[in-house]
C-alpha cells in the first residue's frame, strides 16, 4: 500500500499512535521498526500465523515465564561489513557474540516451554557456539582485545611492563640526581614519551630531545638521553601490540563473514520473536485478545471493545457486532456523543487485525477483507481547490468504483457539507449502492431520512450512542437496534443560547418536519423509554443476582468454616487418642518390666492405667454384656483374668491371682472360668507319677500345708528331671507368698525364682528354676 494510504490510516483512525503504543514493549530496534512500519496488507495465512504466534506468546507470559532478550541488537550492518572483507573492531565483534548469546538464551528458554510455533522458530536458529567461544576467548566484556589473547600478545605485554618499570627506575634516579636543575621534581608524558621540565638555562645540559617550552618560556620539556632508548622501545612494543590486535580482529572478522548468513537469519528470527512477544505484552497490558479471522460471511464481533488510546480508568467498554446478512452498521446520536470514537474503534480494530496485531477487547471475530477504505474527518485541500464536500465526494467516488464484496468501508457523516435534503438523498443512494455490492460499511449519520432507510433495510443495523437527556452529557454506551436523536436544541440550551431563538427554531422544525420524520422521532423517544425501563429491570436483576451470590458466598464461607472446625476437632481428638494410647502402652511396658518389683509399684501402674481409661470414658464403646458378681472375666490390655467380687456403678473389683483390682466395666469381658485343680496332701501317697504337672496351685491352703505340698512337689519335679515349674500361691495378704519364697531360698534343688509375667499370673505366681 502507498504512503498516501498510510497517512490516511493515521489521520482517520490514529493507526500510527497505536503502533507506537505497541512498540514501547519492543526489546531492540529491529522489532520496534518492524512494528512501526506495519500496515494492514497481510495475507490471510500470514494473519493467522501471526495470531498463532501472538497467542503462544501470551500463554507463555501468563504462565509466569520471562523471555530475556538482553544483548540482542541490530547486527546487520556488522555482518554486511564482515561480508565485504572489512575488519571489524573489537567492540563490533563483542556485539556479534552478545547477539548470538541472546539467541542461545531465547532458544533454551523456548525449548523447555509448551509452545509449538515459537519453539520451532527458536530451534531453527544456528547460534554458532564455536564463534561465540572464539570471540569471548579473545575479546573481553569491555570490547577490547584481551592482553593474553595469544601467546605473542601476552609476551609483548610482559615486555612492555618490564621496559616501563626499567624506565621508571631511571627516571627516579635522574630526578634525585638533578633535582636542583629541574623546574619540578617529577616526570611528565609528551606524546607518550617520558620527559622532564628543566630550567631554560639547562635545556642543553642533558642531551636527548627537546619537546617544547612552557608558555612563559622559562622552562623546557626535555627527554634526557637516558630515557630515549626505553621510550623508543615502549613505542615499538605498542606498535607490535596494536598489529597483533589488528591481526586477531581480522581473523575473527573472517569467522563472522563465514557465519554471516546464519547471523542474519537469526536476526530475522529474533525480530519476529520479539515482535510477537511485544504484541503479547501489549495484549496483556490492555486485557486484549487475538482476533479470529474468517472468510465464511460478513459477521463481525468485538466484545467489550475499548479504544487503546483512551484512558483505561474512564474508557467505556462496548460490544459491536454484525450478523451474516447485515452489511451496514449505521450509528446515530448527538454531536460529542461518541459516534466518532465508535467509528474509529471499529475501523482501528479491523486495520489492526489485518496488520497482524491483537485487539483491546475480550473476544473478536473479523472477516478477511481484500481492501480497506476510510472517509472520516475534514479532507478539504486548498492546494487542489477542494472544499470539504468536494473532497468528501471525490473520495466517495473512488470508493464506490474500487470496492467489492470483500471491502471494508468506514464513512463518517455521508452526504454532509451540503443541502440537508440533497445530502440525505445522496447518502441514502450511496449506502444502497454499497449494500448492493455487499461491502461491509460502518457509517454515522444525523439525517432522519438516512435513519429511516436503515430501519427499513434488513441489511442495515441501526444503532446509537447513548446521551443522557437530563444531564445533557454523553454516556458513551453503544446501543444496537436503536437510533439516536441529535439533541441539538438541548445542547444549544446548555450553552445559554437565547430562549427566543430556541423556541423559534423549534417552531420552524415543526413546520418543516414531515409526517414520517415525526413518527420516527416518536419511535426514537419510545425506544429510549423502553430502553431505560429495560436497563432499570436489568439493574434490579443484577442486584438480585448480587444479593444471591453474596448469600451463597456467605453460606459457602460458613460451611467451609464448619468443615475446617470439624476437621480440626477430629484431628485434635485423634491426637489426644494417640497420645493416650502411647501412654497406656508405656504403662503396660513398665508393668511387664517390673515383674520382680514391689507390689505397690505395680498397683500404682494399674491405677494409672485405670485413670487413663477414665479420661477416655466418653470415647470408649459402651459395655454390651451385663456383668455381675461371681462372673469370671478377662482384663483388656493386661492379658489377665479373675473373678468379680464386687460391682459399684460402672466399676468392678476383680480378684486377679489373689490381688484385688478396681477396674472400669468396659475394660472387662466375660470368659469361661479355667479349671485349676488343687493338690491334695495325703499321709501316704504313691510317689510314682505317670504324667507330672508343671504347675502347683496352693491357693487357699494354710502356710504349713502349702509348704509341705511345695516340698513334696519339688521333690517329684527333681525326680522327673523337670527344670522349671510354676507355683500359684495368689496375692491375698502376701503371707503365703513370702513363706514360699523363703522356703525356696533354702531348698537345695532350687536354682532361682522370679515372679510370673502378666500372662502367667503376675504377682500371684512364682516361676521356679530347678538345678
Walk me through the structure:
The chain is α/β, with parallel strands linked by helices and 771 residues long. The protein contains 21 helices and 23 strands. The strands form 5 sheets. The chain has a 6-stranded mixed sheet, with helices on both faces. A hairpin with a 4-residue loop joins β15 and β16. α2 packs antiparallel against α3, α3 packs across α11 and α5 packs across α10. The longest helix has 79 residues. The protein is flat, with a radius of gyration of 53 Å. About 3% of the residues have low confidence.
What topology emerges from the helices and strands here?
Layout: H1 3-13, H2 15-23, H3 29-36, H4 44-62, H5 76-83, H6 90-111, H7 117-123, H8 129-138, H9 151-177, E1 182-190, E2 193-199, E3 209-213, E4 219-223, H10 225-258, H11 260-285, E5 292-294, E6 300-305, E7 318-322, E8 328-332, H12 339-354, E9 363-367, E10 371-375, H13 388-402, E11 407-412, H14 420-436, E12 440-445, H15 448-456, E13 460-468, E14 473-480, H16 488-494, H17 499-512, H18 515-593, H19 599-615, E15 632-635, E16 640-648, E17 651-656, E18 659-664, E19 668-670, E20 695-697, H20 703-719, E21 724-728, H21 735-746, E22 750-755, E23 765-770
Parallel strand pairs: 5-9, 8-12, 8-13, 10-11, 11-12, 20-21
Antiparallel strand pairs: 1-2, 2-4, 3-4, 6-7, 6-9, 13-14, 15-16, 15-19, 16-17, 17-18, 21-23, 22-23
Helix pairs in contact: 2-3, 3-11, 4-11, 5-10, 5-11, 6-7, 6-8, 6-11, 8-10, 9-10, 14-15, 18-19, 20-21
Amino acid at each position: 500500500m502507498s504512503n498516501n494510504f498510510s497517512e490516511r490510516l493515521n489521520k482517520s483512525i490514529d493507526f500510527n499512535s497505536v503502533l507506537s503504543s505497541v512498540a514501547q514493549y519492543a526489546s531492540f530496534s529491529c522489532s520496534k521498526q518492524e512494528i512501526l512500519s506495519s500496515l494492514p496488507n497481510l495475507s490471510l495465512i500470514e494473519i493467522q500465523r501471526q495470531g498463532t504466534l501472538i497467542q503462544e506468546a501470551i500463554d507463555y507470559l501468563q504462565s509466569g515465564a520471562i523471555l530475556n532478550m538482553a544483548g540482542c541488537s541490530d547486527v546487520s550492518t556488522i555482518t554486511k561489513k564482515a561480508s565485504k572483507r572489512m575488519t571489524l573492531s573489537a567492540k563490533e565483534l563483542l556485539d556479534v557474540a552478545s547477539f548470538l548469546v541472546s539467541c542461545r538464551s531465547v532458544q533454551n528458554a523456548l525449548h523447555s516451554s509448551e509452545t509449538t510455533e515459537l519453539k520451532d522458530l527458536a530451534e531453527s536458529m544456528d547460534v554458532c557456539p564455536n564463534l561465540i567461544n572464539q570471540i569471548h576467548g579473545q575479546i573481553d566484556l569491555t570490547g577490547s582485545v584481551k592482553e593474553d589473547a595469544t601467546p605473542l600478545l601476552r609476551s609483548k605485554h610482559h615486555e612492555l611492563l618490564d621496559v616501563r618499570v626499567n624506565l621508571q627506575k631511571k627516571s627516579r634516579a635522574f630526578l634525585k640526581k638533578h633535582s636542583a636543575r629541574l623546574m619540578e621534581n617529577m616526570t611528565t608524558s609528551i606524546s607518550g614519551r617520558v620527559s622532564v621540565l628543566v630550567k631554560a638555562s639547562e635545556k642543553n645540559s642533558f642531551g636527548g630531545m627537546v619537546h617544547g617550552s612552557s608558555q612563559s618560556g622559562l622552562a623546557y620539556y626535555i627527554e634526557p638521553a637516558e630515557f630515549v632508548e626505553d621510550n623508543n622501545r615502549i613505542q615499538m612494543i605498542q606498535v607490535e601490540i596494536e598489529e597483533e590486535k589488528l591481526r586477531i580482529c581480522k581473523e575473527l572478522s573472517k569467522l563472522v563473514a563465514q557465519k554471516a548468513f546464519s547471523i542474519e537469519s537469526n536476526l530475522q528470527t529474533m525480530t519476529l520473536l520479539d515482535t510477537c512477544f511485544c504484541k503479547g505484552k501489549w495484549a496483556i497490558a490492555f486485557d486484549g485478545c487475538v482476533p479470529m479471522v474468517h472468510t465464511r460471511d460478513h459477521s463481525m464481533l468485538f466484545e467489550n471493545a475499548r479504544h487503546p488510546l483512551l484512558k483505561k480508568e474512564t474508557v467505556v467498554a462496548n460490544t459491536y457486532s454484525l450478523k451474516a446478512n447485515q452489511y451496514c452498521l449505521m450509528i446515530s446520536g448527538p454531536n460529542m456523543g461518541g459516534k466518532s470514537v465508535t467509528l474509529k474503534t471499529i475501523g482501528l480494530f479491523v486495520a489492526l487485525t489485518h496488520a497482524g496485531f491483537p485487539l483491546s477487547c475480550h473476544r473478536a471475530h473479523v472477516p478477511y477483507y481484500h481492501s480497506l477504505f476510510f472517509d472520516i474527518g475534514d479532507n478539504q485541500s486548498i492546494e487542489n481547490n477542494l472544499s470539504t464536500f468536494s473532497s468528501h465526494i471525490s473520495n466517495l467516488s473512488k470508493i464506490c468504483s474500487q470496492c467489492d464484496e470483500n471491502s471494508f468501508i468506514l464513512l463518517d457523516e455521508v452526504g454532509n457539507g451540503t443541502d440537508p435534503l440533497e445530502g440525505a438523498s445522496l447518502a441514502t443512494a450511496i449506502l444502497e449502492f454499497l449494500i448492493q455490492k455487499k461491502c461491509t460499511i460502518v457509517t454515522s449519520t444525523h439525517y432522519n431520512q438516512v435513519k429511516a432507510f436503515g430501519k427499513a433495510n434488513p441489511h442495515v443495523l441501526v444503532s446509537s450512542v447513548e446521551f443522557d437527556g437530563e444531564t445533557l452529557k454523553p454516556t458513551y454506551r453503544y446501543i444496537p437496534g436503536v437510533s439516536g436523536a441529535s439533541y441539538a436544541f438541548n445542547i444549544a440550551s446548555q450553552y445559554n443560547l437565547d430562549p427566543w431563538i430556541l423556541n423559534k427554531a423549534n417552531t420552524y422544525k415543526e413546520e418543516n418536519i414531515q409526517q414520517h420524520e415525526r413518527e420516527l422521532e416518536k419511535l426514537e423517544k419510545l425506544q429510549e423509554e423502553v430502553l431505560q425501563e429495560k436497563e432499570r429491570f436489568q439493574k434490579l436483576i443484577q442486584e438480585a443476582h448480587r444479593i444471591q451470590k453474596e448469600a451463597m458466598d456467605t453460606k459457602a464461607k460458613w460451611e467451609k468454616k464448619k468443615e475446617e472446625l470439624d476437621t480440626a476437632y477430629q484431628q485434635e481428638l485423634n491426637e489426644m487418642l494417640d497420645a493416650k494410647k502411647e501412654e497406656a502402652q508405656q504403662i503396660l511396658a513398665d508393668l511387664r518390666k517390673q515383674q520382680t518389683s514391689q507390689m505397690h509399684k505395680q498397683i500404682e501402674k494399674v491405677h494409672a492405667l485405670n485413670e487413663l481409661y477414665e479420661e477416655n470414658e466418653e470415647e470408649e464403646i459402651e459395655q454390651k454384656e451385663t456383668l455381675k458378681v461371681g462372673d469370671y472375666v478377662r482384663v483388656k490390655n493386661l492379658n489377665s483374668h479373675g473373678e468379680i467380687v464386687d460391682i459399684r456403678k460402672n466399676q468392678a473389683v476383680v480378684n486377679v491371682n489373689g490381688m484385688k483390682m478396681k477396674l472400669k466395666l468396659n475394660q472387662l469381658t466375660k470368659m469361661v472360668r479355667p479349671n485349676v485343680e488343687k493338690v491334695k496332701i495325703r499321709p501316704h501317697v504313691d510317689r510314682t507319677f505317670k504324667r507330672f504337672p508343671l504347675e502347683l496351685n496352693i491357693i487357699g491352703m494354710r502356710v504349713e500345708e502349702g509348704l509341705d505340698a511345695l516340698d513334696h512337689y519339688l521333690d517329684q519335679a527333681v525326680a522327673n528331671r523337670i527344670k522349671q515349674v510354676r507355683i500359684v500361691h495368689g496375692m491375698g495378704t502376701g503371707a503365703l507368698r513370702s513363706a514360699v519364697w523363703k522356703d525356696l531360698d533354702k531348698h537345695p534343688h532350687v536354682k532361682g525364682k522370679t515372679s510370673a509375667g502378666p500372662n502367667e499370673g503376675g504377682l500371684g505366681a512364682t516361676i521356679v528354676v530347678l538345678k
